[in-house]
Specification:
The structure holds 2 protein chains of 2 kinds. By secondary structure, chain A is an alpha/beta fold. Chain A is built from 11 helices and 13 strands. The mean pLDDT of chain A is 87. By secondary structure, chain B is an all-alpha fold. Helix content of chain B is 72%, strand content 2%. Classes of the chains: A alpha/beta, B mainly alpha. At the A-B interface, helix 2, helix 3 and helix 4 of A face helix 1 and helix 5 of B.
Chain lengths: 326, 262
């Protein structure tokens, strides 16, 4: 596969655009009929070739949003455009340009081998035999799954099956990939491999990636940008790196010592862990600059190593979720 | 349908045929068909002998061929297809089909048809063998030949009707239990267990106006040696109507699909 400029493939600089998208679901019957708003007034834009994580707690409206963007659900109000098409009106045409993977719903037939399913999908997507064969070979190589394509789906492990699922949704070389919790249930190694594949796909083919996940590592390792949604509303939208920097003005300082020191925490500094040979401090940079803390440490003791890190992303996301609803 | 769409359906059928070729499941299903059809055919042959050799214009031989073909047409399909399709709609599993550039109902009918082809073929072969051994040679081989395309049309009519009924799940929370009533209607108004001519006059006339006769009676009547090509035209006509109904129900239903969460 050769590297491709995203806009060159799509012909559009914007891949996805949601404008005041709202979706309500009815519950109950007759007089007890009520409407629950799953998605409320959501607006965002995703550029061609971007890797975006769409995150939020359970019930936040992530899957509902993806289903509207892929044309499965009709919104109650608002509009959306995916590759210049209105998803719920032009669903069939759009499905030729997008790939969708639901981690909890399989598109492979359990009774068949993946290759047999690909043959069926190839006919549905109007790929001729030669093109289909070369595409399956190409994907087998990319996903390191060639040997899996001829095994019955029911005999594959979850990690192996997910690679075959990804091949199924990439068969027609989609411009935008919607992934709804794609790594759910995978073991650590399989998750890592899957994430690398997504990044490679984005770099090599310019495929726009729009991903939902509860796994922070998916966001850290795949996405460049995060859109956080809660109670059906977008509550944060920025680069993943900026999200960490801006939201928690804290730094973790870990110090290795050659001999014990008498360190008294000052304002803005708390001791998370302390032993004779190590110290772990949490520094609130709005109160005290990290440099000042480091200077103090270097002055009072025999420091053999110092590491300064950002707080874990889980903490950042939890902080966003806990923000009061406006 | 464009050529490409037709090809998609053919591909779906072909892949599904491989899926329906599980030898154990096939053996169980055909074995069940053979036992049930043999018991019913024996009862009707006995009734014919008691009534001086025929019942409602059918001889014992004709009744034997009739019942094996009526059973083969109906049992080739999963009897709870309405429930399965209704479940897929209610749980949102149908969303995966909606992400394909093809008609959702068209693909589902094509794949289910493909899945039942091995069962239909095996039932027709085993049923013909048993009818030959227990009843005797068919009274008219042309009728038997016409019964073969009629079996295919019977299954397609049945599938289209089941999808049209199952599509109610887009509106009603539980449309799945309709399969039980539907099955009984095929048994009675489709003349699967009792030939149409043996029904009371008013019920016979009512049944003729309904699509169920295309699903069991048509191939059974032809296999019993009645060379009546208009039955094939009747099946084709109903197939067009039933597919149109299924497409309309799914088309309207897809617009109001309510799937909450992943």
């Amino acid at each position: 596969m050769t590297a491709t400029t995203p806009a060159l493939r799509t012909g559009l600089s914007t891949a996805i655009e949601a404008t005041r998208l709202t979706k309500s679901f009815p519950t109950g019957r007759g007089r007890r009929r009520q409407f629950i708003e799953a998605v409320h007034d959501i607006s965002f834009t995703v550029e061609s070739g971007e890797r975006v994580a769409y995150i939020g707690p359970n019930g936040a409206g992530k899957s509902t949003s993806i289903k509207m963007l892929t044309g499965i659900l009709h919104p109650t109000s608002g509009s959306a455009s995916v590759l210049g098409r209105l998803p719920w009106r032009e669903r069939r045409a759009l499905t030729r340009q997008i790939g969708t993977l639901f981690g909890q719903r399989s598109q492979l037939w359990l009774e068949l081998t993946p290759r047999e399913t690909y043959r069926m999908l190839g006919a549905i997507y109007r790929l001729d035999t030669t093109r289909l064969r070369s595409r399956v070979d190409e994907l087998g190589e990319l996903l390191e799954a060639r040997e899996l394509f001829d095994q019955p789906v029911r005999s594959l492990s979850l990690g192996q099956r997910m690679r075959c699922e990804l091949a199924a949704c990439l068969l027609h070389d989609p411009l935008v990939l919607f992934l709804d919790e794609p790594t759910i249930g995978l073991d650590l190694l399989a998750k890592q491999r899957f994430r690398e594949l997504l990044v490679r796909l984005n770099r090599d083919r310019g495929t726009t990636i729009f991903l939902t996940s509860h796994d922070v590592s998916d966001i850290e390792q795949v996405a460049e940008r995060a859109i956080v949604i809660n109670h059906g509303r977008v509550i944060y939208d920025d680069r993943v790196a900026a999200m960490r920097r801006e939201l928690l003005a804290t730094k973790i300082v870990e110090v290795a010592l050659s001999e014990p020191i008498a360190f008294t925490p000052s304002q803005g500094v708390t001791t998370a862990e302390a032993s004779a040979s190590a110290l772990r401090l949490v520094v609130d940079t709005t109160v005290r600059p990290v440099r000042e803390v480091l200077d103090t440490l270097l002055t009072i003791g025999q420091v053999t190593d110092i590491t300064v890190t950002d707080p874990p992303l889980e903490q950042v996301i939890a902080e966003i979720y806990e923000r009061p609803r406006t | 349908m464009t050529v490409a769409k037709s090809w998609a359906s053919v591909a779906a059928v072909s892949s599904a045929r491989r899926a329906g070729r599980d030898p154990i499941a096939l053996a169980v299903s055909v074995g069940f068909f053979a036992i049930v059809a043999s018991v019913i055919a024996t009862l009707w042959r006995t009734a014919a002998h008691v009534h001086g050799g025929s019942v409602a214009g059918y001889t014992a031989v004709q009744l034997t061929w009739y019942l094996y073909f009526a059973e083969a047409a109906v049992t080739a399909l999963n009897p709870r297809q309405i429930e399965l399709t209704g479940d897929d709609i209610a749980t949102g599993a149908v969303a995966v089909d909606m992400l394909r550039p093809a008609s959702v109902v068209g693909l589902r009918i094509a794949t289910e048809f493909g899945r039942c082809v091995p069962r239909l073929t095996a039932s027709a072969v085993v049923g013909s063998g048993l009818a030959l051994i227990t009843g005797g040679a068919p009274t008219d081989s042309v009728g038997l030949l016409l019964a073969l395309p009629s079996l295919v049309l019977a299954v397609l009519c049945n599938l289209a009707a089941q999808h049209a009924v199952a599509g109610a799940a887009f509106w009603v929370r539980d449309a799945r239990s309709a399969w039980f009533l539907y099955q009984k209607l095929i048994f009675l108004l489709g003349a699967m267990l009792i030939p149409l001519e043996a029904l009371p006059h008013w019920l016979h006339r009512t049944a003729e106006l309904l699509p169920f006769v295309t699903m069991a009676y048509a191939p059974a009547r032809l296999a019993s040696g009645h060379v009546e090509p208009p039955l094939l035209l009747l099946q084709l006509g109903w197939l067009v109507v039933l597919v149109a109904a299924a497409v309309a129900v799914f088309g309207a239903g897809e617009r109001r699909l309510q799937v909450v969460g992943g």
